[in-house]
Amino acid sequence: MTWTEQxxxxxxxxxxxxxxxxxxxxxLLWLARVRGLVAWALGPAVSALLYGTAAVxxxxxxxxxxxxxxxxxxxxxxxxALLLGRWRRHDPPLRxxxxxxxxxxxxxxxALLAGALLVIGVFAGxxxxxxxxxxxxxxxxxxxxxxVRQDHNASMFGGLDLVxxxxxxxxxxxxxxxxxxxxxxxxxxxVVSTAGMLAVATVLWPLSMVALARAVLxxxxxxxxxxxxxxxxxxxxxxGQLVLSAQWPxxxxxxxxxxxxxxTVLWVRSWHDAALAARVxxxxxxxxxxxxxxxxxxxxxxxxxxxxxxLVFAGPLLLAVAWRAWRxxxxxxxxxxxxxxxxxxxxxxxxxxxxVSGLDRVLKDVMGYQQILPERPYLFxxxxxxxxxxxxxxxxxxxxxxxxxxxxxxxxxERRLRWVxxxxxLTIALAALAGGPEIGLxxxxxxxxxxxxxxxxLYPITAVLLAAVGVGWWANRLHTRWSARVRDKAPRGAxxxxxxxxxxxxxxxxxxxxxxxxxxxxxxxxxxxGVYDPENLGARLLVSADDRRLxxxxxxxxxxxxxVLGDPNAGAVLIFSYGSRTPVYYRIGADWLGTDQLxxxxxxxxxxxxxxxxxxxxxxxxxxxxxxxxxxxKKWPSNLATHALRAVDTASGFELLASExxxxxxxxxxxx
Length: 672
Description:
It is globular and about 85 Å long. The protein has helices at 3-31, 36-61, 67-87, 101-123, 136-151, 161-164, 176-181, 189-216, 223-230, 235-244, 248-271, 278-302, 305-328, 333-357, 359-367, 378-387, 398-412, 418-435, 452-456, 459-486, 501-532, 534-537, 545-557, 575-579, 595-603, 611-620, 644-647, and strands at 563-566, 582-583, 622-628, 654-660, 663-668. By secondary structure, the chain is mostly helical. Strands 2-1-3-5-4 form a five-stranded mixed β-sheet. The chain is built from 27 helices and five strands. It has three domains: 3-335, no CATH class; 379-537, no CATH class; 541-668, 3-Layer(aba) Sandwich (Rossmann fold). The chain crosses the membrane at residues 6-30, 37-58, 64-85, 106-126, 182-207, 219-239, 251-272, 284-302, 308-326, 335-354, 394-412, 419-437, 457-476, 497-519. It comes from Sanguibacter gelidistatuariae.
């Protein structure tokens, strides 16, 4: 299909994904007396809590996943939210201060501009809107989405078994992203996945960051405009994690963190007021904690490592609050006992929940994860983050980095906001550890699979905020110097650009944004082509243009219940999501394969001489063979060895049914 033909489905899917994540959660939060920007920004996390819980329960009781079931699950959720709202009726709603109309207009403009720049960069490298992102994780997510659509099971405990493990294994896998996108009633897996990825990058993420800026910097309303404008300027997120790495569930969780952190800031501020009676402070703390716990729970259901990412940012904040409270009140033995008891009870509760849910076993596996990426010096990772050199070569995005470092210096002077700088430094340290040599301390990064790219994706959460502070400082500096120089004279020439604080801020922001556009957008287009466009993938190619054309025809060529054998490293890995037929291999990895699957991968070229091969085909119900003859062996360590699936002689024992260039479909006759 052409771009023109795909645009209606893409636009509809994009709107559906935004509505799926925003509306249910925002509605529940409104019932719980959370209002305005906070309700919309926190909505995706609460929606995730609804979807994740419903998916597990529906699987347990044997009901199918779908929109009717989700609507039914929303009824008791609304009841709980309403009860919480009644409990909090004596407290003011959890919300940020109202923004001036002028700021709101500028905010919309900035957000649309930032989103457009990212979309242009991504689309410039895509052959079409349904083009598969050709990296390992994307293959899993595309097939996982199609599996939920067909099987109507979005449970994180076994819902994606066919794709990530083996049938009936009951393996844990974060499937909320797949389940939510499966609610979109139209569009192919490719189109819906692209729409979902861009909805997270251009709507959920900027909205989340704007809420954080408004909560952390309430006295600087224009900061939200800067944050919105720069929300897509950093290469590590959203572009790096969502496009280059295709870590879509993890990326969805990352996009939620700023909103939940904003709610944390507002929660602390709502009850941390010595002027309030102790009883009122306790009620506010407890009722707000329930709302916050629900949002954190939603993040966990999106991707479990998100809670550890959240603690990287909330930890410094809560420690700062605790330290100030500790210094402000007498430290009696009773206080110490209560603090220690609270920590122990909280830790025990988390441990018990992990044990009951089975997540403790998942965590154990993750902490022992052996990263296959080559190690790199600590200074390399630090310089890469500070210079943002993923897309721009050294020295990187200098103006953006200068704004961040200026913000660091400014906030170090603000005692109550030093936790932002501490969280910023902590993300850099963790990323450096993850990318560095295998030492004992590197085990801390096991929560993120010891994967440096997952930790680098956290950097923009504080960096965008710091950049906004830096832009504000430079704007004030320029305006002050200009005012001192011209005094009462009318502004002329370049002086008009800094003749007011707002104009000065717009000038500095425009300079930083222009730098990001010039350095970032062309590089995004190039890097997008490197993961989307078959002509630019080289040895990393999984699905060629010939494969796409033949996969589109597959439903017309083989029966609906047919099983198709093919090399997952050469086109056949998307037989399920793009060809709508059952494959032998749903992924390119060699783990969790059955005996027959392994036998065919290693010995299918002996189909005419070895009866065991025909017996394996019969047990799996395979009658068709898919071949891309122009592909070379992949040398990736964890890939399935599939040379036999391309070395087979199709001159005899095979009937050619269709071909598109080097992609061919055969009916297997060798075993008849």
